[in-house]
Amino acid sequence: MATRYGIWLSWNNQQEGFELPILPGEIGSGTSGDGATYDVAGLGKINVIKDRGLAEYTIESLFPAQPYPFITASVVLEPKAYVDYIMRWWETKRPIRLTAVTATMEVNTPASIESFEWKEKAGAPGDI
Question: Which among 26, 48, 13 has a CA at the least distance from the CA of 100?
């Protein structure tokens, strides 16, 4: 049986949620350390190693208003509905769940929305 690739966002134990209608061209993941560097007299610079920080994921995708042939989700909402969900979930100050299955990554984790940008472009009426 083939693996189904996709990215899903949900909220409140999956009471609300959606699959991104179009898989992004890329999804980024990164983590940084929480260490600190100090300048110690007679020793020079030293590094105090601490635990790693939280993982961060960056996703850029399209909420389509047209029935493009590259849509991968089985259910597609109106573009503004995705924006409304994300903004409302963010305002609750409660975690969402990020589930992503790609060729190289399987993620199923609670997450916080730290940044969200959206826009419409000329030439693609209604797409966000």
Answer: 26
Element at 25 (helix H, strand E): none
Helix (H) or strand (E) holding 79: helix 79-92
Residue type, 92: T
Cα separation, 111 vs 97, in Å, equals 6
Question: How long, in residues, is the chain?
Answer: 128
The residue to which tokens 């190289």 are assigned: 104
Calpha distance 59→117 (Å, rounded): 11
Do the beta carbons of residue 18 and residue 82 sit within 8 Å? Answer: yes
**71 CB-near residues (< 8 Å, 6+ apart):** 21, 22, 64
pLDDT tens sequence across 51-98: 888 889 899 999 999 999 999 999 999 999 999 999 999 999 999 999
What six digits make up the tokens of 126? 């209604």
What span, in angstroms and rounded, lies between the C-alpha atoms of 97 and 93?
13
The pTM of this model reads 0.81
